[in-house]
Amino acid sequence: MSAIKTMFHPETGAALHRARRVETVSYMGMSKVVEIEGWFPEDDGDGILMGADSAPLDAALSDLKAAYRAETQALAKRVRQSAGLSQRDASLLLTGSPNSFSKYERGIAQPSWPTFVLLKLLAHQPKLIETIKTV
């Protein structure tokens, strides 16, 4: 623990003390709660993280990104196969790009939020692919 007992917030002037807080990290609709240590005021105001203080937040974000990548890989493949489409045909029909599903399924790229929502919708209502084909 630091030898400094108190510091002041450079913007608010609030007195900050070393303390622990619980924070929620969110990414693409997923969340993870982590405990962090940093310099915080007595109220719920903004604090300051220094050095390794942000490591738990960084690790949580990294975990969420990996989980999202794995989920989108499986989801893209499941939706495409359920519709009986090749990677190229699914890509052109659902994203307009000829190689997007290949990239999604290999984890090289992740779909945008709207495409991810569309894939989730198609996973729950596979017959909607027929409507999309006629648009």
Task: Give a verbal description of the structure.
With 135 residues, the chain is α+β, with helices and mostly antiparallel strands. The protein has 2 domains: 7-66, Ubiquitin-like (UB roll) (Roll), CATH 3.10.20; 69-134, lambda repressor-like DNA-binding domains (434 Repressor (Amino-terminal Domain), Orthogonal Bundle), CATH 1.10.260.40. Helix content is 46%, strand content 19%. The chain has 5 helices and 3 strands. It has helices spanning 55-82, 87-94, 100-106, 113-124, 128-134; strands at 7-8, 15-27, 30-40. Strands 1-2-3 form a 3-stranded antiparallel beta sheet, covered by helices on one side. β2 (15-27) and β3 (30-40) form a beta hairpin. α1 crosses α3 and α1 (55-82) crosses α4. The longest helix has 28 residues, at 55-82. It is elongated, with a radius of gyration of 22 Å. The N and C termini lie far apart (62 Å). The model has no long low-confidence stretch (mean pLDDT 93).
